[in-house]
């Protein structure tokens, strides 16, 4: 089918307008982010690769795409010195440290539990805002926060029941919670900077900076000659992770925010835990029990309740 015929078909069916709808973009972004844990777990199952090596491979492949995002916004004017320092801080917290602790945690726990723990970051944003920025937490926000953490305890209990080595579940959960802490700190500083320099531009430069940090870390503890020797399936999973679970959903989410606004677009993130658990069940063979369903419902319900209570 020629390019002209494809364009005629898209125009006739109205698909271009549909695919550019902010709601569709936000849902695709949520689906992309939710697949990250699946690609990581598939990689661990396919070959004995360690977390920092897998993360380095992901960032090697994502770096050109991050630079492309930044280059597309080259007409937005020069960055100030303060902006550059903030980009480095955001890259460290949101893309380097959060990703590193998350990859380590996924070495120990299921993809479903990982996603639920990460999804508690809005509660941490409120807590850190109160401690660091002196922003009081509304009284009505405490009940939904409590519901979230009851859900996490239920989800951890599910994994403890499924595993004979329960201590590794606790270790992995602690690492992923550290990732949520790092992401919450990143989230506190990202809003004003995104408004000032643009969300796509910020994502491009912060992602590029974090790629450099990951590669510097790998150079200190690893061996770059190992990367070409990794089997093709690991390169394939890493490439899919770099494109479909890193750069593409970031760009899709930025486009959705432009169309819907940050608040509405963020609401579609609630699809993430559900999609991760479904993908983990279908692709990884992870079990789905009533306790995990309870944890999922409590965490999602608590976060949604928290969003309405602000």
TrEMBL record:
Membrane topology category: Multi-pass membrane protein
Signal peptide: none
Keyword Transmembrane helix listed: yes
Alphabetic keyword roster: Cell membrane, Membrane, Transmembrane, Transmembrane helix
Top-level division of the source organism's lineage: Bacteria
Transmembrane segments: 24-46, 52-72, 84-110, 116-133, 140-157, 169-190, 202-222, 234-257, 264-284, 290-307
SUPFAM superfamilies the UniProt entry points to: Multidrug resistance efflux transporter EmrE
InterPro entries (UniProt xref): Diverse_Substrate_Transporter, EamA_dom, EmrE-like
Residues annotated as domain EamA: 24-154, 171-306
Record localization: Cell membrane
PANTHER family per record: EAMA DOMAIN-CONTAINING PROTEIN, OS03G0707200 PROTEIN-RELATED
Name this polypeptide is given: DMT family transporter
Originating organism: Parachitinimonas caeni
């Amino acid at each position: 089918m020629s390019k002209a015929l494809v364009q005629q078909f898209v125009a006739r069916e109205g698909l271009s307008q549909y695919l550019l709808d902010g709601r569709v973009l936000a849902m695709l972004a949520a689906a992309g982010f939710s697949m990250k844990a699946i690609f990581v777990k598939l990689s661990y199952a396919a070959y004995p690769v360690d977390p920092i090596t897998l993360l380095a491979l992901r960032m090697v492949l994502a770096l050109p795409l991050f630079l492309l995002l930044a280059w597309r916004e080259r007409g937005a004017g020069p960055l100030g010195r303060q902006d550059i320092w903030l980009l480095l801080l955001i890259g460290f917290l949101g893309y380097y440290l959060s990703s590193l602790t998350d990859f380590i945690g996924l070495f120990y726990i299921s993809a479903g539990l990982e996603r639920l723990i990460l999804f508690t970051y809005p509660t941490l944003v409120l807590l850190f805002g109160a401690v660091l920025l002196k922003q009081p937490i509304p009284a009505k926000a405490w009940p939904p926060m409590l519901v979230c953490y009851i859900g996490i305890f239920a989800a951890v209990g599910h994994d403890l029941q499924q595993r004979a080595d329960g201590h590794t579940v606790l270790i992995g959960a602690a690492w992923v919670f550290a990732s949520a802490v790092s992401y919450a700190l990143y989230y506190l500083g990202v809003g004003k900077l995104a408004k000032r320099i643009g969300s796509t531009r910020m994502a491009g430069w912060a992602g590029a900076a974090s790629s450099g940090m990951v590669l510097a870390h790998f150079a200190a503890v690893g061996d770059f000659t190992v990367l070409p020797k990794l089997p093709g399936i690991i390169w394939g999973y890493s490439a899919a992770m770099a494109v479909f679970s890193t750069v593409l959903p970031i760009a899709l989410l930025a486009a959705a925010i432009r169309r819907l606004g940050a608040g509405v677009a963020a609401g579609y993130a609630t699809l993430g835990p559900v999609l991760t658990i479904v993908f983990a069940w279908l692709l990884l063979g992870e079990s789905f029990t009533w306790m995990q369903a309870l944890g999922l419902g409590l965490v999602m319900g608590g976060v949604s309740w928290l969003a309405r209570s602000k």
